[in-house]
Design goal:
- It is a single chain.
- The protein is an all-alpha fold.
- It has 5 helices and no strands.
- The protein has one domain.
- The radius of gyration is 19 Å and the shape is elongated.
């Protein structure tokens, strides 16, 4: 049976998974002088393989979290069940975003080694990524609202005691 602490642990784990995801995204897409000015000693190319490894690890960890939610969902209170359902949806959307980012990262890596990845393909992939990210963000906002509601109810209960 999942406890309130385990629910909080799962939510925190998912939150922690955002950090490497955002770091990879920043590494791939954030413009910097090091990427623009290709001076020896200053220019450092993007390490697509390392970013891909980070994203694959994230996919594994997201699958573990989703599995833990699915396994323990029937044994929780109705409030936790609703929260875990939203968290599971959030994890699914994050998984889609990470998978799409991994695909783009792989294609950019191929292009850096002389492969073809045209501008139109890239734009299409980025549009798909943004669509998934928007859904992911919307689910995150819903999850945050639920967290605030739960925290508010918890503080009311604590005051009554």
């Amino acid at each position: 049976m999942i406890s309130n602490e385990e629910t909080i642990h799962l939510a925190r784990k998912v939150n922690e998974l955002l950090k490497p995801y955002m770091a990879v995204q920043e590494n791939l897409f954030r413009p910097s002088l090091r990427k623009i000015l290709r001076f020896p000693g200053v220019y450092r190319p993007v390490d697509y393989a390392a970013n891909g490894d980070i994203l694959r690890k994230l996919l594994e960890e997201l699958a573990e979290v989703k599995s833990a939610i699915r396994r323990d969902l029937p044994a929780v209170s109705p409030g936790e069940e609703k929260f875990l359902g939203v968290l599971r949806g959030y994890v699914s959307l994050m998984t889609s975003a990470v998978a799409k980012l991994l695909e783009i990262c792989g294609r950019l890596g191929e292009r850096s080694r002389g492969g073809s990845y045209g501008r139109e393909e890239y734009r299409g992939d980025m549009t798909s990524l943004r669509e998934v990210q928007k859904k992911h963000l919307d689910a995150g906002l819903k999850l945050n609202a639920m967290m605030k509601e739960i925290a508010s109810k918890q503080s009311e209960e604590d005051e009554e005691k």
